Amino acid sequence: MLKKSLTTLMALIFATGILATSVLRTSAQTSSENYKISPVISDEIASESGQEDLQENKEVDYFLAYPGILPDHFLYSLKMIRDRIRLWLTVDPLKKADLFLLYADKRLGAGKALVEGNKIDLGVSTLTKAEKYLEQAIGQAEVAINKGKDTKDFLGKIEQASLKHEEVLSGLQNRIGQDFQPTINQAASYTKQVRERARQFLNQ
Question: Is 65 among the domain residues?
Answer without folding.
Answer: yes
